[in-house]
Write a structure and sequence with these properties.
The chain has nine helices and twelve strands. By secondary structure, it is of the alpha+beta class. The protein binds (3R)-3-hydroxy-3-methyl-5-(phosphonooxy)pentanoic acid.
């Protein structure tokens, strides 16, 4: 049995379809070059240990029989529940013989957890894949995704799982709620510009906010979701055909619908308007809204002007490689 393994998984950016994807509609997500890493070791002592400096977790320890019990620190939740879910799945398959008494995890990230790049899901996927490899349970990607998605739901109660899918499979995915469809889209890369608003958004708060709005007029919100679903289907074709102009226009349509849902904010609106004014084909918020990032698609000769436009209204440009590789083994011994 291996002693230690390091797995990395990519962050993500939602291209189109957010919010609607929580309610049985499709979205398109791309994995980004910035990665999360987790080193996992099985230990003789029956203790769970975690170091995650990016989320201020230093030398967190508890007995294995207390795993998942009590008030878990915010930065430890996803990793801890991921370990619980993995161990439970081994029990279900009567393979608990595969695990040694203790688990030691350390995570590091190439991106700030403030960006909304999906650091929690990426670390969840890293830990599940690491445990799967180190115990030789050899889960396939769908099984890793399913456990990661379960972990997200255990903690947040809500979510589509798109971020766990991007972290697991990588590339650019056409994805339907809960992984009902996970279809890799065969493209090389996207001329995408990313602007960070400087404001941290909370996904669950925004999902709840939309739900509250729907309470007042459920049919109107269902119609918005239907329209988002339809434009995602068109966007899939535009993306595969590298028709950036049409894709940009669909992003603009999507942004209008997100504004109707009430999840855009002034800062994002300003960054989006600046990108369009500077010649972008299209621009929209990416993710839950309320902050985090916006994305823009622009012709090659307008990229600099679009970046300058976003910066001029206080946005911060984040360079990203799109369509990045999914979870992978970095080192093992
Ligand atoms: O806040 P983010 O970047 O994780 O994006 C959330 C996207 C939602 O559709 C609102 C939620 C989800 O899980 O799909």
């Amino acid at each position: 049995m291996k002693r230690e393994i390091t797995i990395s998984a990519p962050g993500k950016l939602m291209l189109l379809g957010e919010h609607a994807v929580v309610y049985n509609r499709p979205c398109i997500v791309t994995a980004v070059g910035q990665r999360m890493r987790a080193t996992v070791e099985l230990t003789e002592k029956s203790t769970f240990q975690l170091n995650a400096p990016d989320v201020q977790i230093a030398n967190y320890q508890k007995p294995m029989d207390q795993l998942g019990i009590g008030d878990l620190p915010k930065g430890a939740k996803f990793v801890e529940i991921a370990v619980v879910n993995f161990l439970r799945s081994l029990l279900e398959y009567s393979r608990s013989d595969l695990v040694k008494p203790g688990v030691k995890v350390s995570t590091t990230s190439e991106f700030s957890s403030q960006f909304g790049f999906g650091s929690s899901s990426a670390s969840t996927v890293c830990v599940i894949k690491a445990l799967s490899e180190i115990t030789e349970a050899n889960l396939n990607n769908k099984e890793i995704f399913d456990l990661a998605y379960k972990t997200v739901l255990d903690i947040q109660g809500k979510g589509s799982g798109f971020d766990a899918a991007a972290a697991t499979f990588g590339g650019t995915l056409y994805f339907v709620t809960g992984g009902k469809t996970i279809e890799p889209l065969n493209i090389d890369s996207l001329p995408l510009i990313v602007g960070y608003s400087g404001i941290k958004a909370d996904t669950v708060t925004l999902i709840n906010q939309v739900k509250e709005k729907a309470g007042g007029n459920p049919q109107a919100v269902e119609d918005i979701y239907d329209n988002i679903g339809k434009l995602v289907e068109q966007a899939k074709l535009a993306l595969l055909g590298k028709d950036w102009q049409s894709l940009g226009e669909l992003m603009n349509e999507n942004q209008k619908l997100l504004t109707k849902l009430g999840v855009s904010i002034n800062k994002l609106d300003d960054m989006i308007a600046a990108a369009l004014k500077a010649g972008a084909y299209g621009a929209k918020l990416s993710g839950a809204g309320g902050g985090d990032c916006m994305i823009a698609l622009a012709p090659e000769d307008k990229v600099q002007a679009v970046k300058d436009g976003i910066t001029s209204v206080g946005g911060q440009i984040i360079e990203v490689e799109t369509n990045a590789e999914g979870a992978r083994i970095e080192t093992r011994d």
